[in-house]
Amino acid sequence: MGGDEKMARTSAMSGFHTLSPSERLRIVSEFAQLDDEEAKLLAKAGGLDMDTANRMIENVIGETQLPMGIATNFLINGKDYLVPMCIEEPSVVAAASKAAKLAREAGGFRASATDPIMIGQIQIVDVADCAKAAEAVMQLKDELMHMLDNIDPILAKYGGGPRDLRARVLKTDGGCMLIAELLVDVRDAMGANAINTMLETIAPRIVEITGGRSLLRIISNLATERMARAEAVWKKNVLGEDAIRIIGRLSGEEPARPSAALSREAFGEQAINDVLRAFWFADHDQHRATTHNKGTMNGIDAVTIATGNDWRAVESGAHSYAAISGRYRSLTKYWKDRDGNLHGSIELPLAVATIGGATRTHPIAKIAQKILGVKSSQELAQVIASVGLAQNFAALYAMATTGLQAGHMKLHASNLAVMAGAKGEQIDKVVQQMIAEKNISAARAKEILEGM
Ligand code: NAD
Questions:
Q1: Ligand 1 atom at minimum distance from 186 CA
Q2: For FRET with 450, which of 20, 26, 198, 383 sits at 20 to 30 Å CA-CA?
Q3: Is domain 5-114+226-401 annotated with CATH 3.90.770.10?
Q4: Is the pTM of this model over 0.85?
Q5: Cβ(80)–Cβ(385) under 8 Å?
């Protein structure tokens, strides 16, 4: 692997998982043209020095670490991406890579993102007539917008800035209040600080106009004007062939389906029908939908964290958007086309940045962005949406084929083997024997190890 230029630029890397961390790092460094210092920083546990950490938050005494894995195979809008993911949960990186590999056979992901427009809110209370106050704000909209003309020259230089202002009446248990909303194109920033400064600038004038009192002035994390979308196709034959492989690999275990003799087509059809059933379950049942969306967020959060972005902002926006119809639903959708292939799509607000916050101050986040090779916040949002879709598909597909349990069993067995004291090659041997014997327990792991 690596070698000539063409090989180095594809993210389809078979056997990547069999390499050592340092071999993987060499390949990623070549792919993303990391310099020696960057590669060294990644290899050394914890790239964040205490001085930087101490500047990031308060009362610093240390730092924690997460592993960074690379999801391979991502082809998004025709461009190859190696995706850095920071997460403590096993199987996530492997599952994303696999879903991307299967989607690649139909051209990968097609993704898009709207302009990066965030909404800032000003709450005006103690207003005598809320409807009249809202009207008064709208009448002075031009004046209020002009107040923001030179507020963020850097943002303006990159083509961003305030875009619109609206006002509405909110009826609450505590009486009516006026909510003014400022829409700002924040370009490559997340926008929280940039928008908050703008809200502070116009709030006093709104108070004058309305005769009320301004209380909260803050960005909304439900970024409905900053949406990312991604779509992919998983072909029936590709899934069928893969399902047969999985069942073969797990031979020694009961096949998940009694229909092991089915053709590739039939296997694919069954997998697709079951993925659809799993999706409908989630889309109509809130208890299932919460877990279904958690699976999607496994991917979304892992890239959000790797790139130094505010994952709480992304999380709250995603779940809020999932309930925007009044019912908490799946963030992804699935359907079958006339040829029986599976289509998946995702749509959610994604306020992620390539500048501001920790995206540039955290040295590892900076390197993660370089590995991704994203040029804008919109491109980053497209990648993250694609990873979310891949992650969700991988979970549904795993459950629909061999059952998540079988995959997890192997992992569980390997954890037990390590706990029993197995090292290196011993781990695989203990795992294989426990699976073949269908006796996966701490006691058996110990016995097998002792007998070696
Ligand atoms: P920031 O304060 O660093 O501001 C970004 C600034 O960078 C812009 O105002 C602009 O002047 C400049 N800039 C330079 N190049 C740019 C480009 N290409 N595109 C856009 N701007 C460019 O960052 P921010 O995004 O305003 O704030 C993000 C931080 O705020 C995060 O750390 C987040 O956790 C935090 N925060 C979040 C919330 C919330 O989510 N509710 C609330 C408060 C603070």
A1: 20
A2: 20
A3: yes
A4: yes
A5: no
